[in-house]
Amino acid sequence: MSKPRLPELLLVLSMIALATGLAACSEEDSSDSTSAASVSLSDCTPEELGTVAAGKLTIATDDPAFPPYFEDNDPTNGKGFESAVGFAIAEQLGYSPDQVEWTVEPFNSCYAPGPKDFDFDLNQISITKKRAEQVNFSSPYYTADQAVVAIPGTLPDDLATTSDLADAKIGVQIGTTSLDAVTESIEPAEEPVVYDNSNDVVTALEQGQVDAIVVDTPTALYLTAAQVQDAEIVGEFSAPGGDEWGALLQKDSALTGCISAAVDELKSSGELAEIQERWINSAGGVPSLD
Description:
Layout: H1 6-16, E1 57-61, H2 81-92, E2 100-104, H3 107-110, E3 120-121, H4 129-132, E4 135-143, E5 146-150, E6 170-173, H5 177-186, E7 193-195, H6 198-206, E8 212-216, H7 217-227, E9 232-237, E10 244-250, H8 256-269, H9 271-279
Parallel strand pairs: 1-2, 1-3, 6-7, 6-8
Antiparallel strand pairs: 4-10, 5-8, 5-9
């Protein structure tokens, strides 16, 4: 979920990636990812798939699209974790890069019920029971922790648990798992300050409107490395019920099984892990808050 340049980010990502491992935006408990039955990937070809544009695979994400998920606010370049995942899914389904179309879908509207003008959406969207009532999700392609970011000296130095943050004024983006994580895991004495978008969350931190912000760990690593360089990650913790991200599709979409099959193949082949290693730095070195 505003964007310094690629060289700064790549430098930090390359250093942290040596530690390896995996670390979003969204809501509530995760649920079964898809309402569609499992299908064979061999049955998922451009000729068989009923996409919104014939012969094309249309993938949605937000604008602006931030690192490390997208680079240079350009999903079409294949750079960044979710851009790379999108093109990898397309390849599994038999689509060449020039047959992939990217379209804009704001995060807060993507999981609203009703018809979609995209085939699936990649936007750090957590799989939740509430959302799954209105949309479909593919198999999860990523699992993220939540991280607390603050300016040094703002919070106590001896933080050990999430309850140690109970008296802090915390900023979060509306409609995200981070908001639920703050409410359920930190249980702050003061209601978290909710902002409409990630830019406003970062501005609040920079201007001292809040003591800390909570975002998913990959975003926190990017923010502290390349966007708010005097900020630090004071700790990370698991979102309630886990925080799995899935490709979002229209409710009862016939494509769901095929998108899940593509994600599953990327997992089993190791390609998804390679994409994660390249574009998402690990949580290594980030202190854990029990």
